[in-house]
Input
Amino acid sequence: MSGIKISYAMRPCIVSGKKALFHRWVEEAYPIEASVRFGGCPGGQIRNTLGLVEFDDGSLDLASVRDMRFIPGVFSDYCWDEVQDG
Output
């Protein structure tokens, strides 16, 4: 046995100034119609990556990556001895 342990843990984060727990990444996609203007944009699909977060009142929301900031401290749990800056 290799001793590798995989576990699921939520990460604390700040979303638009509010405390939250990050659960996972979610892909959101929806189709768009082609522009009716000559030379306009063709139809296609818009896709965004959002974070599923839980607030302290128990409510869930999808948060934009730009509105999220993870709480520092997780990096100290990993070994960085072999990595050189630059």
In short: The chain is about 0% helix and 45% strand. The chain has a mean pLDDT of 86. The radius of gyration is 19 Å. The longest strand covers residues 18-32.
